[in-house]
Amino acid sequence: MSTERPSDAPPTLEDVLAAADTLWPFPLQEDWDASGLVTGRAEQPIRRIHFAVDPVAAVVDEAVSRDADLLLTHHPLLLRGVTSVAAHMFKGRAIHDLIENRCALLCCHTNADSARRGVSDALIAACGVSPDDAAPLVPHDTDPRVGLGRVGTLTTPVTLRELADRLAQRIPPTAQGLRVAGDPERPVSTVAVCGGSGDSLFDEVRAHGADVFVTADLRHHPASEAREAALGPGGSGTPALIDAAHSASEALWLPWAAEDLRHELERRGFAVETSVSSLRTDPWDFRIDTPGT
């Protein structure tokens, strides 16, 4: 009996994993990360893939409502160890809902941060720098073309305010919006970015001479120390800082991911439908400005 699949057969989950590994190689993930397959059988057919930043309950419900066979998220569901996935807990509920609706879950986290056309490439493109002209802030040991963060130069310098306005139009809206540190009228040309939490990369940002650093989750002390170093004796005033909400800084990658995975599967002879979540999964709901700000 022939074991060949029909020419119009959908890819299996194993096929999709192989394609994802080509685009966002799993060995690129950081040692502490948990990228990879969370639920699903290797042989199950995949016809519809839904993309989102966070594997939260609303996203799982959205994927199920779209009859997705695979939910691909940036953030892992099980980044830290758990001792139970009982359905009365939110992670257990997500796993049960996915399995019971035959929807696999694949997480591409820091491997997608480091890969070309990954999270930071999408963020620096939103700033106005071509990813082809950007380099990693922290090159990976195995390939200097990939790695954490990106740095590149704008074709035409803009003011810090203009760059912040540009990003505000392109980054998904959140209650936080954008926080900016620096003279709004100062020109910026060299831009460093890191999608997600980036305040561990200040040394690399300064080493590249970046005029501005665009990232998320900037804590008070690292941001304050960076500003003091920039403005103190011998300081150049750089880098200015633009701080976005964590999920918003990464969501720009989702349309790229959907397009790239669909094209990679087409190259392998498979056709799938893809969709990108429209849900805002940033945990904050609203902001109240204090008087005088």
Number of strands: 12
Q: Overall mean pLDDT score?
A: 94
Number of helices: 10
> What's the CATH topology label of the largest domain?
Udp-n-acetylmuramoylalanyl-d-glutamate--2,6- Diaminopimelate Ligase, Chain: A, domain 1
Can you tell me the CATH architecture of the largest domain? 3-Layer(aba) Sandwich
Protein name: GTP cyclohydrolase 1 type 2 homolog
Subunit structure: Homohexamer.
Family: Belongs to the GTP cyclohydrolase I type 2/NIF3 family.
Pfam family, one: DUF34_NIF3
Concise synopsis of the structure shown:
With 293 residues, this protein is α/β, with parallel strands linked by helices. It has helices spanning 13-23, 57-65, 90-100, 110-114, 119-127, 160-170, 202-207, 220-231, 246-251, 253-267, and strands spanning 36-39, 48-52, 70-73, 104-107, 138-140, 143-148, 150-159, 179-181, 187-197, 212-216, 240-244, 273-276.
What topology does this entry show?
Layout: H1 13-23, E1 36-39, E2 48-52, H2 57-65, E3 70-73, H3 90-100, E4 104-107, H4 110-114, H5 119-127, E5 138-140, E6 143-148, E7 150-159, H6 160-170, E8 179-181, E9 187-197, H7 202-207, E10 212-216, H8 220-231, E11 240-244, H9 246-251, H10 253-267, E12 273-276
Helix pairs in contact: 1-10, 2-3
